Amino acid sequence: MSEQPRPEEAHTGDPGLVTAEADAEPTTRALSDDVIVDEREGMTISTRSFGRQTWDRFRRHRLAMFAAALLVLLAISFWVAPMLSSYGFRDIDVAAMREGPSFRHPFGTDQIGRDLLVRTFHGGRFSLRIALVVALLTTFIGTVIGSLAGYFGGIVDTLLSQLINLFLIVPALVVLLVVGVRYGASPNGIAVILALLLWPAIARVVRGLFLQFRDQEFVLAARAAGARPPRIIVRHILPNTFGPIIVNATLLIGTAIILESTLSFLGVGVTPPTPTLGNLVNEAKGAIDSRPSTILIPGGFVVLIALCVNFLGDGLRDALDPTTRKG
Amino acid sequence: MTATERDTLPGATGAPPVLEVTDLVKYYPIRAGIMRKQVGSVHAVDGVSFALGATETLGIVGESGCGKTTLGRTLLRLVEPTSGQVLFNGEDVVGASSSRMRELRQDMQMVFQDPFASLNPRMPVQDIISEPLQIHGTDKKEARIKARALLDAVGLSPEHGNRYPHEFSGGQRQRIGIARSLAVNPELVVLDEPVSALDVSVQAQVLNLLEDLQEEFQLSYLFIAHDLSVVRHISDRVAVMYLGQIVELADRDELYEAPAHPYTHSLLSAVPVADPEMERSRERIILEGDLPSPANPPTGCRFHTRCPIAQDNCVTDVPPLAEVRPGHWASCHYALGPDETLVQRVKDLGREVHIANSDTGVTTA
Prior knowledge:
CATH topology of the largest domain in chain A: MetI-like fold
CATH topology of the domain at 3-248 in chain B: Rossmann fold
Distance between the termini of chain B: 49 Å
Largest sheet of chain B: 8 strands, mixed
Largest interface: A-B, 35 and 45 residues
CATH class of the largest domain in chain A: Mainly Alpha
Number of helices of chain A: 12
Largest sheet of chain A: none
CATH architecture of the largest domain in chain A: Orthogonal Bundle
Order of helices and strands of chain B: HEEEHEEHEHHHEHEHEEHHHEHEEHEE
Structural class of chain B: alpha/beta
Shape of chain A: elongated
Strand content of chain B: 15-25%
Distance between the termini of chain A: 22 Å
Number of strands of chain A: 0
Structural class of chain A: mainly alpha
Oligomer: heterodimer
Radius of gyration of chain B: 22 Å
Number of helices of chain B: 13
Shape of chain B: globular
Helix content of chain B: 25-40%
Number of domains of chain A: 2
């Protein structure tokens, strides 16, 4: 057999795993023993599902687990924390302008007396929401176009690939500046524009995966069974490409957060007074010497989210990639 | 095509054939340059004709790259043929509309070579087996019940239907592939090297299973392989392919005991003999040179570049696949007689050729 010994089945190699599994799945172990009774080919057989194996691999990735936990915590606090404050993000406290951190305003206030804690957390909420919308929309567009190009090949591929290349060479920042200046923008508007600029990256990945899978024997078998292209794409190839797609979608969240901050900092992102992390940095840029915390706090959140997302993406990549199956 | 022509298809027997193939050709274009201009073509299958009778097994053997797999895929139109005719129960397959083709696929199925690549890793086994049924309109529940019965029929436990392919061994996966091909109750199954990826002990189990299933479901097999002993075990008749063409086709025992084509002869002599005495004393011809490129096949007889008994006209004249003895077709201008060996013929011609024998290694006679 051309296959090397498949690492996920070599239980004995990894002491950490044996303990992790022994308490987890005693019943399936017994079942897997009866699978190999009739035909021993020097292989032990693992009965864990793909999802289960992925999770086992992922949770051993400490940094990714930590990043995932921190992201969840951040998201929850972005939604919950502003509700606990008595200030809204537009409320102005004229008695307290340009204040430093205090008990009433833990992050201080801005130049017109708005509470910076509330604005920062609201900003995080808008930024994260934009990033999630961008990731979903980008993945959707990229997957549809990439799978059509990769599966059908030929003239379809040629046309779609040219479209992908066209979008890839568009100077993103210039387009964003022009559109932002002309139309201003709501959070959803910014998300749509970012998605329109970012989908080619996903489309190329998905196209490559489809090229790799469309001549595999299991796809031929589906064709031999009489399956039509939609069924083959959706039921056979797509499930096999989920890993890389999820990883790329995750990493996109980080890219989107940074891009949105950049735009808002340049003043062409989400229109004030709606706070985003980028807007907050922009509004505070005059105070970098006098009150650096007003810049460092929202900037720090941008960095934190982007870092977490990247660690999470790395962890997912390792966990979903079958060639690194250590579990 | 006239009736007389059809009668002369190599391998045609008295019984009505399930599959009749005439002059099947598949060229793959070779493209180069920015404009992707076609600069040549790979002659993967080049004028193959044969007939396959009902409930019969026709073995197809040949070296890697001789076009066996392409032939199998072209017959089922998983690869579109360049030209030629394929009749399935008298119906034209090549010209069938895509909807008619989909219906035909219920009767013509395929088992693939690689048991690791041929099952979707993200589908539970019962879905893999029942999918062909669902595609052809059986409802999900019923299809699953049938899948359990099929698992049982191929010697697996029906309870394992909700497991994924990676939970099975190579031999078990190949059984799953066989079960999938049988789900729609086909008449013809193309078996593309179904056991070559398996251990020898498991090969025997799968071969026996295939024989049992053939009897149970009245199947016709086109059995593609490169292992001569496996093909001899399972086939009724055997066709030998070289560079996209059938060079010899005969009943199994006739082909193995009295091959007429020098290529078949040298292939068979490459199989080691179990008896060490015999193995030491026997002489065999070692083919010289490599398989020529199918993008640029030799003129005349394709085998002439490596043939130890080639004459001048072999370089220019294409030998037809002709019936050299009753039921025995070979494409050679100088086909060997029933009791003649290739070594004998070479010596008669007074040629110098490398003859191997285990005592002496390679010698020159």
